[in-house]
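Lecture notes, unit on protein representations.

Consider one protein chain, 307 amino acids long.
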Amino acid sequence: MATFFDTALEIFYILMGLMFLYSGYSAFHDETNDKRIGSAFFWWLLAVIFIAGKWLPYWFSGLLVVLIGCLTLFKQVGIGTQFKNDDDKAEASADKLGGKIFIPLVTMAVVALVLPFLFQEAGASAVAFGALGGLLVALVIFKPKPKEIIQESDRMVQQVGTTSILPQLLAALGAIFVAAGVGDVVSQLISQAVPAGNPFWGVVAYVLGMAVFTMIMGNAFAAFTVITAGIGIPFVISQGGDPVVVCALGMTAGFCGTLMTPMAGNFNVLPVALLEMKDENGVLKAQIPFAVVLLVFHIVVMYFWAF
């Protein structure tokens, strides 16, 4: 089964790469986009990484990432007016479909959640299978034309834009930090503040460390490797904490940090742009109180459940 899921995941990456190829083609032919050349190359370079990244030399993939970063840095990636929303059409569709519009989303979440319980080898491919399940349900309910599927996927890809690659880059950055020994430095600093042999304060340091480092990095995946190596293992797990409970709650504690930082652009900045909100910090202001409560909840649950 492990081989099956690994192969399936690679196929999903290739399919995403093909979608990026189309987005590049669409951007290149969008006369309303004054940055169409840079936008096209952004998506084409990203497509190459997704399609052939497994077989490309590391240095070459890194070079492509640098080129992508340069296109973003010099503001050469944009979107034209071809995706301007038809508010009347959208409202009419919403009235017609009602709550059915959420069924594909729920399907995706359920499949992604259940599959790892059935097959431990599913790993990251569970999310991809969840997306596939949601798509199949959407085809049954909405009965779109094949052309509409491609066009709407392209619209979403280009509207999300450069923030779409943040999770991958930040997760890679976390691995680099661990290799560079940042986790050891964090561990030394925490050891001066946390009483030795006290699991409660170890839990507090781990939970808060995940939240704060996530706020700095903008992504819990990047923070997880560093903070778990520097705090979670020596100050919680080595004190007798259940590794499964500690790591699971450690990751979700990081997500609390995601709710409180503008660095998490795809969560807290992108919605502001898509919804055309007047207050650019409106999403953060609404989320911070809940995030603080959840952090306290994480500390309590981790301490009493892991030990």
